[in-house]
Design a protein that fits this description.
Layout (H helix, E strand, L loop, with lengths): L3 H4 L7 H22 L1 H22 L9 H13 L5
Helix pairs in contact: 2-3, 2-4
């Protein structure tokens, strides 16, 4: 159960879900990595994965959490705060 707090971001529902998330990460990820650095970005990814996992366990106990959509949302929000748009 505790391992799923981090690893739920690896699983995806289907290929369309994976493709959509992966394309958004490819579009927004380099902007965020350039602005904040790799180590800070990895820390933010881990914190976001744990927070979304905890929220799922506390409020939606019977629903399985899969995908990296929470991390994609985090990247989109961080990109909106940066001024280095493509």
């Amino acid at each position: 159960m505790y391992l799923r707090m981090f690893t739920h971001v690896i699983a995806h529902q289907d290929l369309a879900h994976f493709t959509g998330n992966f394309l958004l990460i490819l579009a927004v990820g380099p902007i965020i990595e350039e602005k904040y650095g790799s180590k800070t970005l990895l820390t933010m990814i881990c914190i976001t994965a744990v927070i979304t996992g905890l929220v799922n366990v506390i409020f939606f106990r019977n629903i399985m959490l899969t995908g990296v959509s929470g991390l994609v949302f985090m990247l989109i929000l961080l990109a909106s705060f940066t001024k280095n748009y493509i």
